[in-house]
Every structure is written in C-alpha cells, then in structure tokens.
C-alpha cells in the first residue's frame, strides 16, 4: 500500500461546518451618546472602543447634533482617528462599509479644503474632500489614491447628510474599485459613484480611518460628524462541504488548494516540502489516500523551521460546526508551546475562534481551543496522548449546537490501524466569527508553530463522521477514552 522514499510526516484535515452563518458585524461604532453636555474634549479623552482600544478624539468640541452630541471641528486641522496598536482592520480580507453623518456649518474658506475622512494603509486608499469650487458653489470631491480623476457632487450648508463607503476585499497590490453613496437626512439616495484606487504594495492591511480638517495650515472648516459606523458586509453562506484541501504535492505552488475553491495558502518562512520515505517519519502515511485514491508522495517538514502557511479570512471560513483532519508525525519534544496544526486564532487582536493541535508538554495530547467572544479561549483536552516519531491520522469535530457531546477527537495509529477516540462537551453558544488569518502549521501568527511533519490538510464546513475521513475507518481496534 505504501510507496515511500524517506523522512517524516503529519496529516491534518479540517472540516468546518457553517450553513447559515454570515460574516456581517460591527467593527467600530461611535455615536457620542455617552456625553451629557456640550464641551471641549481634552487630548486624552477617550470615545468608543474597537478591539479593546479606545478612539482618541483630541481637542474637539461636542455639541447637539443629529442624534444628541456629535463631534464639531471649529477652524481646526486636528486629526481624529481610532488609535489602535494593530491595524484598524487587521488581516483585512473582507468587504467593509464605513458610514457617518455630517453637516457643513458654512462654506469652506477660499483656498481651503476639508477632508471629511480618509482610509489609509502604507499609502492612501481613499479620501473624501469637501471643498469650494468657485465663489458660489460648494461640492464634495471623492478621490482614490494614485488617480488623477475624482468625482464631485454639490451640497447645501447646515444640512445633514450620510456618507457611506463600501470597500471591497483589497488586493495585496494594484488597483481596485470602491463605492461611495450619499444620502439625505431621510435616507433617500442622492448620489452613488464607483471610485478607483490603488492598494500600493501592502494593501491587505488598513492602518487608519481618520477624520481631519485638512493637510497643513490654511485648511480649516466648521463641520459636524456623528454616528460613525464601520461594519463588515454580509456575504452568502458557504456551500456545505470541503472549504480547503492542502496536499503539499506541488512543489511549484506548495500551498495549492486541491478542493477547487481557490484558497491557496501563502508560505511564511519557507516551509520545506518533504519526500515521504520508505522508513521513518511519514512512511506509513496513506498512499494512495483511501478517500479519493490520490497518490501521496510529499508532505511538509516543519520541525525546527518556524515555517507555516496562511490565507486571509474569507466568508467561507465563518463556521459554527467544523471538522479538522490531518496526518501528523511530531518531533520528540519537549516543546516551548503547543503545536498548532491549523487555526483561526489570533490572540493579540482579539480574534480567537478555533485552534486544533497537540499540547506542547507531556502527555502531548490532542487539544482544541475555541472562543465565543474572540478574547477568552476555552481549552478542551482530548485525553488522547501522542508519541514522538509516530505516524498518526488525527481529527477533531466541533458541533456548536450539541453542548453535551459536541466535541469529538480521533487518532489513528497508522502503523497498527488502531483508533482512539474521545467525546467532550463545551459551553460555546456562538463560535466567534474571527477575521484573523487562517493558518496551517501554526497559531497566533508564529507563536504556536507545529514541530512535526504534516500532510493532507483538509478544511470543511461540515461535521465528518469516521467513515468520511480521508483515511479508512476499517481494521484495528477502537479505544474510547472516557
């Protein structure tokens, strides 16, 4: 059954289930309703929160606005933005919508310009200017970065409008299109326009959403801003089945997705393709794969490499149920931290969702971390120990609706064909829909790299039973851990 060459291996298969879950949700919101009287905010005043970090308002005055208090710029060029230590939309792969209410208190001074908002990364992505066209007419000017073209529409003073910007999934580089819409106070659409912009060479992260009165001296204006809202845009639910299937057979595109869904992984720190041997690590990895009959010649050797693979978040990654499978042969240990086989679990930005791996200390058991709020994590120990330098097939499934027995671990000793399984409850009501990067071979960035040989990683959005795994469920004995 085995046609091997030389070295070691791990196989992970992930099957995530989410039929009705969508990604829409509020990222940042501020309506200034926490203020009971108009007054000047000091430079240390904090308004609103995002990912645990407050929005620094700076020296601006609040006064009665469209819905209570709002922010007022009075002949100032002070910049106002959420001051977050991480990127504003970290690992940004999802479409988002930015909206706010605004009102011009007077015409812009001659030769001045007011930038109502700007969205930035290493380069500007977009901004909206409110400027003066000539002596009699005032206009909005919408502009994308790097473009000589913009678009203008006219406005009335002392009148509330709503500005809405839809940003698509921003590419890593090159051009993209975003959509601006302006509404009147009744919600009637007055204007919509697609604007082209350029993402530069680092477009996947947004560093700032800022509000400012202009660039440099001489750019001042009176303007009210209220009801700032940043939210992800709802996407269609994923089709039930395999989300991603990473086999590591193609040396030219090592992170190639064999599922047909296009979620090819990006290599970090040069992961090494590993030729599966006749003896040693990975020698008993299935070849061909019983579920699909595909030849299995190569895997990954991640031992002592600090290497792993990533893919930015996708709508399809939002799950309520999931299964993770893999072939794995870990190093002997001990380890400084746990060995994450696959995860969407980024702790530093409050984007924990799930992580499947092996505990980094004795007895080196299979573990699952899950989170409901993105910040606190729940550890579920399987009670299934692993040994170094042994070939295994491993799997975990998580059923959000079955709190009594919704977590199931499986381990198959590939040398003997014996299975070990355990069933556990959980307390998660709704698994956190993380926007963090999906990682194979690590977790929390590079914090939990997997010192192992791994192979045949599959990620699905359905709960797989034992008879649907990549490996065969026939033969061997079954040990149930109580």
Can you characterise this structure?
By secondary structure, this protein is mostly beta strands. The chain folds into two domains: 10-22 and 237-481, Jelly Rolls; 25-232, Jelly Rolls. It has strands at residues 10-17, 25-30, 39-40, 46-50, 53-56, 61-65, 68-74, 81-82, 96-104, 113-120, 124-132, 138-144, 150-154, 160-167, 175-184, 189-198, 208-210, 222-232, 242-246, 266-268, 272-275, 298-301, 308-311, 321-330, 339-346, 351-358, 365-370, 378-385, 392-399, 407-413, 419-424, 438-440, 452-460, 478-481. The strands form five sheets. Strands 1, 19, 21, 22, 24, 29, 30, 31, 33 and 34 form a ten-stranded mixed sheet that branches. Strand 10 and strand 11 (124-132) form a beta hairpin. It is elongated, with a radius of gyration of 26 Å.
């Amino acid at each position: 059954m085995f046609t091997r060459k030389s070295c070691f291996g791990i196989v992970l298969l992930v099957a995530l289930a989410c039929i009705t879950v969508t990604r829409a949700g509020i990222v940042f919101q501020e309506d200034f309703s926490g203020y009971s009287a108009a007054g000047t905010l000091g430079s240390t005043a904090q308004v609103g929160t995002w990912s645990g970090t407050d929005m620094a308002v700076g020296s601006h005055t609040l006064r009665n606005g469209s819905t209570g208090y709002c922010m007022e710029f009075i002949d100032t060029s002070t910049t106002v933005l959420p001051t977050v230590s991480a990127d504003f939309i970290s690992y940004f792969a999802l479409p988002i919508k930015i909206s706010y209410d605004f009102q011009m208190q007077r015409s812009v001074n001659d030769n001045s310009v007011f930038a109502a908002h700007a969205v930035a990364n290493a380069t500007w992505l977009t901004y909206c200017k409110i400027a003066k066209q000539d002596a009699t007419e005032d206009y909005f000017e919408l502009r994308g970065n790097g473009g000589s073209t913009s678009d203008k529409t006219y406005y009335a003073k002392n009148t509330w409008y709503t500005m809405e910007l839809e940003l698509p999934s921003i590419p890593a580089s090159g051009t993209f299109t975003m959509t601006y819409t302006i509404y009147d106070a009744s919600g009637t659409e007055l204007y919509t326009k697609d604007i082209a912009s350029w993402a530069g060479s680092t477009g996947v992260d947004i560093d700032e959403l800022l509000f400012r009165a202009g660039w440099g001296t001489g750019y001042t204006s009176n303007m009210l801003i209220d009801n700032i809202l940043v939210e992800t845009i709802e996407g269609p639910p994923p089709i039930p089945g395999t989300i991603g299937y990473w086999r590591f057979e193609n040396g030219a595109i090592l992170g190639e997705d064999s599922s047909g869904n296009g979620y090819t992984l990006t290599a970090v720190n040069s992961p090494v393709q590993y030729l599966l041997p006749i003896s040693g690590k990975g020698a008993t990895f299935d070849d061909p794969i019983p579920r699909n009959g595909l030849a299995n010649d190569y895997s990954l050797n991640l031992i002592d490499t600090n290497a792993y693979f990533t893919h930015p978040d996708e709508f399809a990654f939002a799950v309520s149920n999931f299964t993770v499978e893999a072939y794995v042969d870990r190093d002997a240990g001990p380890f400084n931290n746990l060995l994450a086989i696959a995860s969407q679990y980024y702790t530093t930005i409050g984007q924990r969702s799930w992580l499947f791996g092996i505990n980094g200390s004795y007895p080196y058991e299979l573990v699952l971390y899950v989170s409901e709020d993105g910040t606190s994590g729940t550890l579920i120990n399987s009670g299934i120990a692993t040994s170094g330098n042994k070939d295994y097939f491993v799997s975990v499934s998580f059923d959000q609706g079955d709190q009594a027995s919704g977590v199931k671990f499986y381990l198959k000793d590939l040398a003997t064909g014996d299975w070990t399984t355990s069933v556990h409850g959980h307390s998660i009501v709704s698994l956190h829909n993380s926007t963090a990067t999906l990682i194979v071979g690590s977790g929390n960035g590079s914090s939990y790299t997997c010192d192992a040989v791994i192979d045949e990683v599959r990620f699905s959005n359905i709960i797989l039973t034992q008879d649907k795994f990549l490996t065969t469920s026939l033969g061997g004995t079954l040990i149930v851990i109580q």
